[in-house]
Amino acid sequence: MKIWQVDFNHLPATKNNLSRQWELVICDRDTVYSARCDSEWANSQWLETQFTTVAQNELPKKIQVFRPQALGLITLAAEKLGITVEATRHTETLKIALTQRAKSIPNYNPLALEKPPPQPLPESIRGDELNFANIAAGEIVSLFGDRPIPILDLPETFLPINMRVASNIMIPGIVVYGGKNSMVLARWLQQQQPVSLDYVTTEVGKSGGLVLETGLVDRWIFNTFAGENTIRVAEDYQQKKQISKGLHFLLIQPDDSGMTYTGFWLLKNES
After folding, report:
1. pLDDT tens track for 68-86
2. In angstroms, how far is the first alpha carbon of the chain from the final one?
3. What are the pLDDT digits (tens) for 186-228?
4. Which pTM value belongs to this model?
5. SS3 assignment, position 83
6. DSSP class of 163
7. Is 167 exposed, middle or buried (0-12, 13-18, 19+ CB in 10 A)?
8. 32 with 25: CB under 8 angstroms?
9. For residue 144, which of 256, 255, 269, 253 has the smallest C-alpha distance?
10. DSSP per residue, 2-57
11. Pairing, β 119-120 against β 218-226
């Protein structure tokens, strides 16, 4: 399936060009296309024309977008051409291209997004207990790939073998025993589109918590805790993600019997 990664963003004004310009960047495998327009032309019709020109009779099936501000216009243009749009933070090829292009523009970071402060999880979906866990990279697929799990998110690009993570490397994760809220929590998480789950310290060695990143910029306070033992485990969890190339997991199950799983997500921190 042909997939584009696309960004449409305004550039900072320069001494030579005081008018605000917008830049379209399209990544198609190893090819990068770009075009600029003045603010008065920055609309879905201009984007539609550019998409048609770049496609050359072979439109993509999907366009991936990481910037919330660009999502609306790109979606309008794509829908007219029958192209599906996916909002996702995982647009590594595009982000590399944007970073390279921005080197010639002083004080400009094209990847900087304004994120809201983390929000508490809805009280109605909280689980009964949370534990840290580790699974060998070589066992991820065998453990979860064929299990009858109601909600399973195991992206092919994140599989350890495709990420070139050795089978003996431990993938860190979080296990939530949801009890009676297990399915409600799993469904809510799936709707939010989990991206990553990070340990954030509030007082070094004494307290901290887990922040869940979802969607394009949303953040949630997933759990808070205190105590030296828990903090050490949480720090170990965060450090293991560096060894696993950012791979980690979130597992929801009703209890600790290990007989039933409600939801499993293989996640990856942004590079």
Report:
1. 999 999 999 999 999 999 9
2. 24
3. 999 999 999 999 999 876 666 689 999 999 999 999 998 888 8
4. 0.86
5. coil
6. T
7. exposed
8. yes
9. 253
10. -EEEEEEEEPPP-SS--S-EEEEEEEETTEEEEEEEEGGG-SHHHHHHHHHHHHTT
11. parallel
